């Protein structure tokens, strides 16, 4: 890994961290910190920051499953950008840039950077397709905890997950479509790694990441 690449990752991670802290500071002032940390957007961006910092600490000593973790975070951030664009943001906002610097960083820059980094960084081992399944564990856990917490507090981070805004039937239907999208995007992220990084490295010569 070049020093330029390392520096670029670190700078993006620091920018994302600054955006997260800025949002958290505003949430603390409004006594809404619990809601702030409940957003998938903030959690997935925080994962990216932790991943980059851990990568710097573990440089040269990364475990065999490191690429799988990187892929999971890239996948979560990709879904952050897609869900925000399709289900959360107003239609007139998609082509605008006056949405605040934290919104641009967390909803647009971070997903793009994570995907580009995922595609361009050489892998070390051949990927196992089964990781597509375990990449879904966090989204399912997020969904379960969101509904459990919402049932107690009546607050939901996203309207499409809020049964009080429509009905459980509508929420479950939308959720089913979103979960299908999660699997489709996860498969795409998995395949992007396999195709973009396999040149010069025969797949049969590489050791599978997961067994």
So what's the overall shape? globular
Largest β sheet strand count, sense and barrel closure: none
Structural class: mainly alpha
Helical content (DSSP H or I, runs of 4+): 55-70%
Distance between the termini: 27 Å
Rg from alpha-carbon coordinates: 18 Å
| SS elements, strand count | 0
Poorly predicted runs are: 198-211
Mean pLDDT over the residues: 88
Oligomer status: single chain
Our count of helices gives: 8
Order of helices and strands: HHHHHHHH
| Percent in strands | under 5%
- Structurally, the number of domains stands at 1
Short note summarizing the structure:
With 211 residues, the chain is mainly α.
How would you describe this protein?
The chain is mainly alpha-helical. It has one domain (3-205). The chain is 67% helix and 0% strand. It is globular and about 50 Å long.
């Amino acid at each position: 890994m070049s020093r330029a690449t390392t520096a670029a990752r670190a700078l993006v991670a620091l920018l994302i961290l600054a955006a997260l802290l800025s949002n958290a500071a505003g949430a603390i002032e409004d006594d809404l910190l619990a809601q702030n940390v409940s957003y998938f957007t903030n959690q997935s961006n925080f994962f990216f920051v932790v991943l980059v910092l851990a990568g710097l600490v573990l440089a040269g000593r990364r475990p065999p499953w490191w690429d799988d973790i990187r892929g999971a975070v890239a996948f979560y951030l990709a879904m952050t950008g897609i869900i925000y664009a399709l289900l959360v943001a107003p239609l007139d906002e998609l082509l605008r840039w006056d949405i605040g610097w934290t919104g641009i960083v967390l909803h647009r820059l971070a997903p793009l950077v994570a995907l580009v980094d995922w595609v361009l960084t050489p892998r070390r081992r051949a990927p196992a397709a089964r990781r597509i399944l375990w990449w879904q564990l966090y989204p399912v856990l997020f969904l379960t905890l969101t509904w459990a917490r919402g049932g107690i507090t009546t607050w939901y981070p996203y309207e499409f997950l809020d049964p009080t805004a429509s009905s459980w039937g509508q929420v479950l239907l939308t959720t089913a479509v979103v979960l299908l999208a999660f699997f489709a995007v996860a498969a795409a992220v998995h395949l992007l790694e396999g195709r973009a990084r396999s040149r010069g490295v025969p797949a049969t010569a590489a050791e599978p990441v997961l067994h």
